[in-house]
Amino acid sequence: MKVNVIVKPKEAVLDPQGNAVRDAMRHLGMPEVRSVRIGKYMEINVEGEDADLEKRLHRLCRDLLSNPVIEDYELVKTNGARKTSAIRKKQK
Amino acid sequence: MKFAVIQFPGSNCDQDCVAGINSVEGLQADYVWHKKTSLRDYDAIVLPGGFAYGDYLRCGAIARFSPIMKAVISDARAGKLVLGTCNGFQVLCEAGLLPGALVRNRSLRFVCEMVTVRVELPDSPFTHGCTEGTLLRMPIAHGEGCYFADDKTLHELNHNRQVIMRYADDRGRIVPEANPNGSIENIAGICNREGNVLGLMPHPDRACDARLGSADGAKIFRSMMETVVAQHARAA
Questions:
Q1: What is the pTM (predicted TM-score) of this model?
Q2: Which of B1, B80, B133, B208 is deepest in the core (most CB within 10 A)?
């Protein structure tokens, strides 16, 4: 099973890194940019596939991969498809 | 009296901590490798600064699962004094021994300078001999020292008097200009509800000798010693 985990800073948490990138984007000719939030993206390859495995993955998302005090996470099963790179290739 | 200084892979203030503790008469510090599983022989535990596990994922996120942390957590719950400085503070938050979290400095800069903190709670196990409002000078050196807690947690911290130190100017005023990293309410150090676990961004270990700019950090180690002596006297 392949899963993607996205970890994002919570709304209430200041993200100075995101603000710096927002400002850079505005500088580079895109004043329309309202906000940027920077998180983490992980591609995880796991042997096997069942509900228990998914449950254990969620537990590790809470205990290790994210800190629930400051971050939210999303866990998405992908079956190996890498959507993001597919989109990039088309644009080239 | 024996203090344990935990060494994680990537700790780099372990030697400062051992030297600082040993400079206080009556104290002896030992290095304890993070793979050990017992801290039975020690009267207090210190988690030093540094970059445990390279700060990968988040500061302290991986270190909190080191084998020694089970002993740190169980000894802390049993009332033993635990001090985490800098990276050690981050590990204590990740381990759930302290509320809140430490995030990227608001300025995005790594800050390395001498700061002044005001003692907010005079008679904590870590601040014996300091009256309320005592100013201590200690160095900081961190990129992720901006303390964050949600409103409810912050309210509890203030209500239960768990904020032990705040960044202050040299007249003791808690003002934004004295805040080096954007911490909410200038928080520099907090303890747990029971008061036996303290997390502190400044480095008492680097302020144990006047020749290095300040000896105020030694007051914290001395206070811990006095607390342990009092605990032993009560138990006897």
A1: 0.93
A2: B208
